[in-house]
Amino acid sequence: MFFRLPSAYCFLPVTLSKTFLFSFTKRLNFKQRVNPQTGKPANANAMAKLFKTLLWVQGLYTLVTALWGLLHIESFMLVTGPKWDVWLVKTVSVLLVAIAAALLAFIKENRLSLPAILLGGLTALGMAAIDIYYHFADVIRWVYLLDAAAELLFATGWLILLFHLKKRQQV
Protein backbone atom coordinates (compact mmCIF):
# COMPACT_ATOMS: atom_id res chain seq x y z
CA MET A 1 0.00 0.00 0.00
CA PHE A 2 1.42 3.37 -0.99
CA PHE A 3 0.22 6.76 0.13
CA ARG A 4 1.64 10.25 -0.05
CA LEU A 5 2.74 12.01 3.10
CA PRO A 6 1.34 15.50 3.62
CA SER A 7 3.92 18.07 2.58
CA ALA A 8 4.21 19.39 6.14
CA TYR A 9 5.80 16.11 7.22
CA CYS A 10 8.55 16.49 4.64
CA PHE A 11 9.86 19.70 6.22
CA LEU A 12 9.58 18.58 9.86
CA PRO A 13 12.81 16.49 9.90
CA VAL A 14 14.71 19.32 8.18
CA THR A 15 13.48 21.90 10.69
CA LEU A 16 14.23 19.68 13.67
CA SER A 17 17.69 18.74 12.40
CA LYS A 18 18.58 22.40 11.69
CA THR A 19 17.53 23.41 15.20
CA PHE A 20 19.45 20.54 16.77
CA LEU A 21 22.60 21.03 14.70
CA PHE A 22 22.79 24.78 15.25
CA SER A 23 22.44 24.42 19.02
CA PHE A 24 24.88 21.48 19.00
CA THR A 25 27.55 23.32 17.00
CA LYS A 26 27.21 26.40 19.21
CA ARG A 27 28.17 24.22 22.17
CA LEU A 28 31.21 22.90 20.30
CA ASN A 29 32.64 26.44 20.11
CA PHE A 30 34.64 26.38 16.87
CA LYS A 31 36.74 29.45 17.71
CA GLN A 32 40.20 29.21 16.25
CA ARG A 33 42.36 28.68 19.30
CA VAL A 34 45.92 27.98 18.24
CA ASN A 35 48.17 25.45 19.92
CA PRO A 36 51.34 27.43 20.77
CA GLN A 37 53.62 24.40 20.29
CA THR A 38 52.43 23.30 16.85
CA GLY A 39 50.90 26.50 15.48
CA LYS A 40 47.85 24.47 14.36
CA PRO A 41 44.28 25.00 15.54
CA ALA A 42 43.78 23.45 18.99
CA ASN A 43 41.01 21.11 17.84
CA ALA A 44 42.79 20.00 14.65
CA ASN A 45 43.82 16.64 16.10
CA ALA A 46 40.28 15.91 17.28
CA MET A 47 38.89 16.80 13.86
CA ALA A 48 41.51 14.65 12.09
CA LYS A 49 40.60 11.75 14.37
CA LEU A 50 36.87 12.27 13.70
CA PHE A 51 37.61 12.38 9.95
CA LYS A 52 39.51 9.07 9.97
CA THR A 53 36.94 7.43 12.26
CA LEU A 54 34.02 8.44 10.05
CA LEU A 55 35.83 7.19 6.95
CA TRP A 56 36.55 3.82 8.57
CA VAL A 57 33.18 3.28 10.22
CA GLN A 58 30.93 4.54 7.42
CA GLY A 59 33.13 2.92 4.77
CA LEU A 60 33.00 -0.50 6.44
CA TYR A 61 29.32 -0.18 7.35
CA THR A 62 28.41 0.70 3.77
CA LEU A 63 30.64 -2.04 2.36
CA VAL A 64 29.20 -4.76 4.60
CA THR A 65 25.57 -3.81 3.98
CA ALA A 66 26.18 -3.54 0.22
CA LEU A 67 27.96 -6.88 0.01
CA TRP A 68 25.17 -8.53 1.99
CA GLY A 69 22.65 -7.61 -0.73
CA LEU A 70 25.01 -8.96 -3.41
CA LEU A 71 26.22 -12.16 -1.79
CA HIS A 72 23.17 -13.49 0.06
CA ILE A 73 19.95 -11.96 -1.21
CA GLU A 74 17.79 -14.53 0.61
CA SER A 75 18.89 -13.50 4.12
CA PHE A 76 18.87 -9.84 3.05
CA MET A 77 15.20 -10.12 2.05
CA LEU A 78 14.39 -12.14 5.17
CA VAL A 79 15.45 -9.16 7.30
CA THR A 80 14.47 -6.24 5.07
CA GLY A 81 11.35 -7.69 3.47
CA PRO A 82 10.51 -9.12 0.05
CA LYS A 83 11.68 -7.25 -3.01
CA TRP A 84 9.98 -7.23 -6.39
CA ASP A 85 13.04 -6.15 -8.32
CA VAL A 86 16.07 -8.08 -7.10
CA TRP A 87 18.14 -6.55 -9.91
CA LEU A 88 17.53 -3.12 -8.33
CA VAL A 89 18.81 -4.30 -4.94
CA LYS A 90 21.93 -5.59 -6.63
CA THR A 91 22.38 -2.38 -8.64
CA VAL A 92 22.16 -0.22 -5.50
CA SER A 93 24.54 -2.63 -3.76
CA VAL A 94 27.15 -2.24 -6.52
CA LEU A 95 26.88 1.55 -6.30
CA LEU A 96 27.26 1.41 -2.51
CA VAL A 97 30.36 -0.78 -2.87
CA ALA A 98 31.87 1.96 -5.06
CA ILE A 99 30.99 4.62 -2.47
CA ALA A 100 32.44 2.49 0.33
CA ALA A 101 35.65 1.95 -1.64
CA ALA A 102 35.99 5.70 -2.18
CA LEU A 103 35.42 6.43 1.52
CA LEU A 104 38.02 3.84 2.50
CA ALA A 105 40.46 5.21 -0.09
CA PHE A 106 40.21 8.69 1.48
CA ILE A 107 41.75 7.26 4.67
CA LYS A 108 45.18 7.76 3.08
CA GLU A 109 44.59 11.54 3.03
CA ASN A 110 46.53 13.33 5.75
CA ARG A 111 44.18 16.30 5.86
CA LEU A 112 40.47 17.03 5.90
CA SER A 113 39.19 16.68 2.37
CA LEU A 114 36.09 18.49 1.10
CA PRO A 115 35.33 15.77 -1.51
CA ALA A 116 35.44 13.10 1.23
CA ILE A 117 33.21 15.17 3.52
CA LEU A 118 30.71 15.75 0.71
CA LEU A 119 30.70 12.09 -0.37
CA GLY A 120 30.22 10.78 3.15
CA GLY A 121 27.74 13.42 4.24
CA LEU A 122 25.54 13.45 1.15
CA THR A 123 25.50 9.65 0.95
CA ALA A 124 24.43 9.46 4.61
CA LEU A 125 21.76 12.14 4.21
CA GLY A 126 20.43 10.55 1.03
CA MET A 127 20.22 7.08 2.52
CA ALA A 128 18.56 8.38 5.71
CA ALA A 129 16.01 10.41 3.74
CA ILE A 130 15.10 7.40 1.59
CA ASP A 131 14.82 5.12 4.64
CA ILE A 132 12.60 7.53 6.57
CA TYR A 133 10.36 8.58 3.69
CA TYR A 134 9.67 5.09 2.36
CA HIS A 135 9.20 3.60 5.82
CA PHE A 136 6.49 6.13 6.65
CA ALA A 137 4.98 5.59 3.21
CA ASP A 138 4.56 1.90 4.21
CA VAL A 139 6.85 0.70 1.44
CA ILE A 140 9.74 -0.70 3.53
CA ARG A 141 10.01 -2.34 6.95
CA TRP A 142 10.84 -0.72 10.29
CA VAL A 143 14.38 -2.16 10.19
CA TYR A 144 15.28 0.60 7.74
CA LEU A 145 14.78 3.12 10.56
CA LEU A 146 17.78 1.53 12.28
CA ASP A 147 19.80 2.22 9.15
CA ALA A 148 18.42 5.78 9.07
CA ALA A 149 19.61 6.33 12.65
CA ALA A 150 23.12 5.17 11.76
CA GLU A 151 23.15 7.31 8.63
CA LEU A 152 22.02 10.38 10.58
CA LEU A 153 24.89 9.85 13.03
CA PHE A 154 27.31 9.74 10.11
CA ALA A 155 25.74 12.87 8.61
CA THR A 156 26.09 14.72 11.93
CA GLY A 157 29.78 13.87 12.08
CA TRP A 158 30.33 15.03 8.51
CA LEU A 159 28.46 18.26 9.22
CA ILE A 160 30.70 18.96 12.22
CA LEU A 161 33.73 18.43 9.99
CA LEU A 162 32.28 20.69 7.31
CA PHE A 163 31.76 23.49 9.85
CA HIS A 164 35.32 23.01 11.07
CA LEU A 165 36.70 23.10 7.53
CA LYS A 166 34.63 26.18 6.73
CA LYS A 167 35.97 28.00 9.79
CA ARG A 168 39.53 26.95 9.03
CA GLN A 169 39.64 27.57 5.27
CA GLN A 170 36.62 29.81 4.71
CA VAL A 171 35.23 27.37 2.10
Commentary on this structure:
The protein is mainly α. It has helices spanning 7-28, 44-71, 73-80, 86-105, 114-136, 143-169. The protein is 75% helix and 0% strand. It contains 6 helices and no strands. The longest helix is centred in the middle third of the chain and has 28 residues, at 44-71.
Which class do the helix and strand fractions yield? mainly alpha
**Shape field:** elongated
Q: What distance separates the N and C termini?
A: 45 Å
Helix content: over 70%
Which short descriptors sum up this protein?
single chain, 171 residues, mainly alpha, 75% helix, elongated
Write the layout of secondary structure elements.
Blueprint: H1 7-28, H2 44-71, H3 73-80, H4 86-105, H5 114-136, H6 143-169
Describe the structure concisely.
The chain is mainly α and 171 residues long.
